[in-house]
Amino acid sequence: MAAREEERGKAKRKKMMGKEMDGMWPRIKAKKDLQINRLKGTHLFTAQVPNFFTAAEAKAFVDAAEAIGFAHQGSQGPAKGEAYRDNDRISVSDPVLAENIWESGLKSMFDDIELRGKIAVGLNPNIRFYRYKVGQRFGCHIDESVNLGEGRRTQYTLLIYLSGDLCSKTRHGLDKTQDSSIHSLVGGETVFYDERKGIVAEVAPMVGMALLHIHGGRCMLHEARAVTKNVKYVLRSDVVFA
């Protein structure tokens, strides 16, 4: 019985992967007066209003992702030259969803950012959802830049936390706190390191918060710490420059 259920789940994911699924995603409200919180001297910043996604939007994305079904993703680990990875993942190609997220507020955040004469033009339509259960983590790694053709290349990683605290515990220059005693997730911080492995920033998941950091050749080494209570959900895409 369990084997048949797993096979049906795999077939469902295979059918959905690589297809646009406009209509199954929640509607995203346009966000105004985004609070952009930059870490001086880096290309790392968060976006809150106080949430880039509302709590309702975040939950709706979690529900949609769970309806699709996650597949486990691991790695061979450092002994084989790979970062340690243990999480569950979904990948969908959806240009409509990518555009909706971009136009809901991200676009204005990149108005004054230019890289080698290139400007931000949108999000990578490859949308990924990550799920981390208790004990799961993603070891130290860097995110590669992806050439999408026609002069377009990804330059920033976008992470939108779909679960987490209702108040931020971000440290090292990224403090933004709300008055709340509700802590729905323990662990799962995104931690950035400098070249000497000193901690540059620790970003605790906050429901609906967007985290952006440059990737490719200038990407900081970073990791996703192990979750110790409840489940961490993240939406991932990339900012494209051209």
TrEMBL record:
Q: Which InterPro entries match?
A: Oxoglu/Fe-dep_dioxygenase_dom, P4HA-like, Pro_4_hyd_alph
Cofactor(s) needed: L-ascorbate
Record's Gene Ontology CC terms?
endoplasmic reticulum membrane
In Swiss-Prot or TrEMBL terms, this protein is called Uncharacterized protein LOC120254653 isoform X1
Q: Kindly state which keywords UniProt assigns to this record, in alphabetical order.
A: Dioxygenase, Iron, Metal-binding, Oxidoreductase, Signal-anchor, Transmembrane
Keyword Oxidoreductase assigned: yes
Give the catalysed reaction(s), semicolon-separated: L-prolyl-[collagen] + 2-oxoglutarate + O2 = trans-4-hydroxy-L-prolyl-[collagen] + succinate + CO2
Give the bilayer topology: Single-pass type II membrane protein
Tell me which domain of life the UniProt entry assigns to the organism this sequence originates from. Answer: Eukaryota
Q: Where is the signal peptide?
A: none
Its ancestry begins with: Eukaryota, Viridiplantae, Streptophyta, Embryophyta, Tracheophyta
Please indicate if the UniProt record lists Metal-binding as a keyword: yes
Molecular function terms, GO-annotated: iron ion binding; L-ascorbic acid binding; procollagen-proline 4-dioxygenase activity
Sorted alphabetically, which SMART domains does this protein's record hold?
A: P4Hc
Q: Which parts of the sequence belong to the Fe2OG dioxygenase domain?
A: 122-242
Localization, UniProt: Endoplasmic reticulum membrane
The principal location of this protein is endoplasmic reticulum
